[in-house]
Amino acid sequence: MHADAQIPDIAFPGQDKLVSALDAAVSAGDDHAITAALRNTLCRMIRDRDVALPACIYEPIDDHYARREIYRSAEHGYSVVAMTWGPGQGTPVHDHCGLWCVEGVWDGELEITQYELLEHEGERFRFRAAGGMQAGPGSAGSLIPPHEYHTIRNTSPDAVAVSVHIYKAPMECCSMFVPERGEWYARQAKPLEIDEAH
């Protein structure tokens, strides 16, 4: 789905409540104030029984984690993407191409590992893991460039996990980092597809 593509029109219980809360949060000020407000809002919405994600969000896709855009704000520009993680599915080390993001675990558990960029030479980057966490339902965190390098993985052997990601704008590509030797990785451009939500 490209920037000029149609804004998703997916109705779900509590959509208006979620959108009005997100709209208020993105009006909070600078990037730090906005992401802090969005973290609090997302944690509250995950626990709100009036808000329920579309049923298709709980359906994993066998060969990759699913990215389904469930809302895009015509007024504020932000994008809301629900991700479905089958058992063992995850990401390589990646960035967010300069966009802030707030990520919350809606259902299940995810392992999130932050990476610190130590140096780079052209397209080769040296990273060191800078802490990880097991995140369960109702927990949320934010990424503000340049502190945006991380991995996400569902470590469960049998349970599906669902997370909701709010991006400053639709994220259609990112850089992923492929391990080379030791702490060195090679950067590769990665287009990000949107899976169908119904």
General description of the model:
- It is built from 2 helices and 11 strands, in the order ααβββββββββββ.
- It is mainly beta.
- A 6-stranded antiparallel sheet has the order 3-10-11-6-5-8, with no helix packed on it.
- Strand 1 and strand 2 form a beta hairpin.
- The radius of gyration is 16 Å and the shape is globular.
- Residues 1-5 have low confidence and may be disordered.
Summarize the structure.
By secondary structure, this protein is mainly β. The protein has helices spanning 15-25, 31-47, and strands at 66-72, 79-85, 93-94, 101-107, 110-121, 124-135, 140-143, 150-153, 161-167, 173-179, 184-191.
Notable characteristics:
single chain; 198 residues; mainly beta; six-stranded antiparallel β-sheet; five-stranded antiparallel β-sheet; disordered N terminus
